């Protein structure tokens, strides 16, 4: 599950891990204060430019956004119906941008480097009783699991389409929850098998 990293000789890959994570956190926070769809569209173009700078194949970019398309369309339609097309475009654009940026980090950063950087960055919380190792692992897995969950959504959609199941939020949510819980169980077993100490 943690094998998404694609090695390339690029400035994005060489950029310090801590700065990548800090930039992702700032971008995720700042997006909530941006409601102009044009500005969000410009940010999306910038994110695609970073993928090009990282010398990642086009298939890798499309692979991150393709599973998200049905969700984006549904999100835009709902928001546009109740709050106007500008709000719908901004909301869908925010989600697409967040997924692209999180995917860029995981595609250009080894999982072990991410966990180490987070643990170092959270070291100052140890005197407060915070286990920096556990928190860093949780954050790294959260970032990594965003594209994995999108792949699950696509997999469920394809299976439902093949069976002729009616496409609805409930029909998607139930199997998604089951698969997510099963994946979390497998992850827990894998960590235990590798001797991870949660203390």
TrEMBL record:
Q: Where is the protein found, in the record's own terms?
A: Membrane
Q: Give the principal location in a single coarse category.
A: membrane
Membrane-spanning residues where?
21-53, 65-83, 95-112
Q: How does it sit in the membrane?
A: Multi-pass membrane protein
**InterPro entries annotated for this entry?**
ABC/ECF_trnsptr_transmembrane
- UniProt KW Transport keyword: no
Q: Keywords on this record?
A: Membrane, Transmembrane, Transmembrane helix
PANTHER family given in the database record: PROTEIN ABCI12, CHLOROPLASTIC
Identification of the protein by name: Biotin transport system permease protein
């Amino acid at each position: 599950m943690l094998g998404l990293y694609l090695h390339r000789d690029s400035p994005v890959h060489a950029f310090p891990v801590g700065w990548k994570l800090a930039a992702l956190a700032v971008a995720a926070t700042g997006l909530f204060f941006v409601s102009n769809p044009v500005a969000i569209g410009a940010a999306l173009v910038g994110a695609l430019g970073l993928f090009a700078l990282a010398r990642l194949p086009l298939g890798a970019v499309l692979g991150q956004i393709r599973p998200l398309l049905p969700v984006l369309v549904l999100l835009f339609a709902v928001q546009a119906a109740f709050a106007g097309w500008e709000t719908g475009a901004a909301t869908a654009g925010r989600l697409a941008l967040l997924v692209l940026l999180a995917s860029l980090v995981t595609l250009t950063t080894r999982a072990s480097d991410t966990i180490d950087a987070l643990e170092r960055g959270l070291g100052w919380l140890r005197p407060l009783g915070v286990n920096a190792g556990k928190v860093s692992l949780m954050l790294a897995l959260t970032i990594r699991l965003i594209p994995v969950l999108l792949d699950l959504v696509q997999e469920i959609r394809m299976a439902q389409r093949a069976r002729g199941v009616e496409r609805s939020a409930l029909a998607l949510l139930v199997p998604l929850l089951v698969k997510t819980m099963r994946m979390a169980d497998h992850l827990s077993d894998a960590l235990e098998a590798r001797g991870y100490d949660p203390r």
